[in-house]
Amino acid sequence: MTRLSRNAWKTFLFLIGILTLLREDALALTSLDSIPTENVKKERYFRPAAIIVPTTFLVYGCLKPVISGIENLDTRIWENINNNHPDFYTTADDYLQWAPSASVYLMDAFKVKTKHSFKEHLLIDAGSIIITGGAGYVMRKISGNIDEYNTHGTWFPSGHTANAFRGAEIVFQELKDRNRVLSYSGYLVATAVGVLRIYNKQHLLSEVLAGAGLGMLSTKLTYLVFDKVKAHKKKKTLAP
Questions:
Q1: Buried b vs exposed e over 149-174: b needs ≥16 C-beta within 10 Å?
Q2: Is the pTM value of this prediction over 0.85?
Q3: Do residues 101 and 169 lie in contact, with contact meaning Cβ atoms separated by under 8 Å?
Q4: CA trace torsion 137, 138, 141, 145 (10° rounding)
Q5: What is the pLDDT of residue 38?
Q6: Reduced to 3 states, what is the DSSP secondary structure of residue 47?
Q7: What is the CA radius of gyration of the chain?
Q8: I need a surface site. Which of 114, 152, 161, 166 has the fewest CB within 10 A?
């Protein structure tokens, strides 16, 4: 692997490291609120500390048409991988993308304590798939008409990466209050998916980063909607 390629991976992993550190700070800033007769933690999924990294990832990819350096870095990494690993190919990323979300159901099967129940996991998982897939579809339609996104025959953003980070965010949300170390495990798998998408010559760095940001933000939105609907139903039930 060339020096430029090594530096690119270090930068990508460094950004993931920042995500972990910011998650620690975000946990300390979680506010508490209550609803009638029952104390429930009210999460602020879109507080600045919680969204700065996924938003940065997404904005980075979206700025490609106006910042030439992003396209240049994409091209350099693409050329280096094609020159140094022309025969590399694996289908592992096709399966690994589902590993984070699947692990939530595995925890349900082994009765590992998580924030929500099995039925609620089904709703959250399905909702995040719909939101991530819908937003990704719109982004691909728009980017398909922009020249800077069509230089290497790839798609913006990376759907595999978005799906992997979507699941990783679910793992984090479900475990962060009970097993903080394990809650980060999904991000490691999702990062591996992003790297493999680039090595498989299926996506560029900017597409992978944008996919990661999209997946995390979409899942946060899913949790926000889920919590509001759940709280609304509880209030209706408690109403005289």
A1: beebebbbbbbbbbbbbbbbbbbbbb
A2: no
A3: no
A4: -140
A5: 39
A6: coil
A7: 19
A8: 152
